[in-house]
Amino acid sequence: MSEQEKKHWNEGKRSAEEARGLLLENIAEGGGVFAEGRREGFHCIPIIGQIEGHYLLPEGQKATKYEQIIPLLVSLEEDEAVDGVLIILNTMGGDVEAGLALAEMIASMTKPTVSLVLGGGHSIGVPLATAAKHSLIVPSATMTVHPVRISGMVVGVPQSFRYMSEMQKRIVNFICRHSKATPEAVTELMMRPDQIATDCGSILEGAEAVECGIIDEVGGLDRALEVLREMSASTCKKDPKNKNKNNSYSKK
Q: Which of 10, 50, 128, 154 lies in the 20 to 30 Å Cα band around 108?
């Protein structure tokens, strides 16, 4: 290898390392990454650990901060370079109001959205998974469906129990509006006393979550990207004036 070839090779290596470093920095700071291919550009958002609400979680605990994800979703909705959003879930749940706020934001997006449950999509992670226009779960993942829980001081008056009941109804209604599940089926899963020790609720494996109608289908990353491409192509065909950067589907 000549000196000039070595120089070019080293420059290319440095450029690749800088690009990888920038990619990792974007993931750490923004909670997501933009993946651009020859056909389209998709943004991936991970929702992991516990969903943090109005109070900071202890150090050392992985968390998804809703005050970071909400403005990110707004920017993705307005970004013409983004053809679709992939939401990756591996969450134990967390703050109910914060999780429901994120779910409503995702559900109201006009961009194609696909959710993929890896590992677990527990508690408030269930409505987050159903919020996307299409939801998938890998065979080994699980989802825990249980009644609303609250921590801290609880005043033993009817108003407290009515608040919890109304919050639970909002969650059930959201899940059913954005999936094939019925309110009766979801409520029954929440109230089962025979699956979780010292608690009530249900733990659903991948295929069971699909059978219940909560998730659309069992699949992995390859299927999630395939669905996103199909949705992006359909969007381009419906709107010939689509201004997305890559509009190759409208040419077919």
A: 50
Digit-coded pLDDT (tens) for 81-110: 999 999 999 999 999 999 999 999 999 999
pLDDT, tens digit, 9 for 90 and up, residues 18-69:
554 554 455 455 556 676 665 678 999 999 999 999 888 888 889 999 999 9
Catalytic residue from among 122, 134, 146, 178: 146
Q: Is 54 a catalytic residue?
A: no
Single out the catalytic residue among 123, 135, 179, 202: 123
| DSSP H helices in 60-119 | 66-78, 96-107
CA distances from 1 to 88, 172, 208 (A): 44, 65, 58
134 in active site: no
For residue 219, what are the contacts with CB-CB under 8 A and spacing of at least 6?
Answer: 116, 136, 137, 138
